[in-house]
Design goal:
18% strand; 3-stranded antiparallel β-sheet; mainly beta; binds zinc ion
Length: 84
């Protein structure tokens, strides 16, 4: 049983970004994930939801680089491990 609406606790309404396919206008709309609000500029309904992209690959300096397998032989110990 799902208790989605408890008294005194409002569910969070996420803010989604959309881009209109017709006029490429970007706009934000509060609502559900499956909602397709019309474009505020041209009224078109062919809108694409833009996912909030989290930057991946930007490390703060304290993150260790991922250990990749040796490119030559695929040794899981890391690059150069097979030459020792
Ligand atoms: Zn539009």
């Amino acid at each position: 049983m799902i208790r989605g609406s408890r008294c005194g606790r409002l569910p969070e309404v996420p803010l989604y970004e959309y881009v209109c396919r017709a006029c490429t206008r970007e706009f934000e709309e509060l609502g559900r994930a499956d909602a397709r609000p019309p474009c505020p500029a041209c009224g078109g309904t062919e809108v694409e939801r833009v996912m909030s992209v989290v930057a991946i690959g930007r490390t703060g300096g304290d993150a260790a680089p991922p250990v990749t397998a040796c490119g030559t032989c695929g040794d899981p110990r890391g690059p150069g491990a097979c030459t020792r």
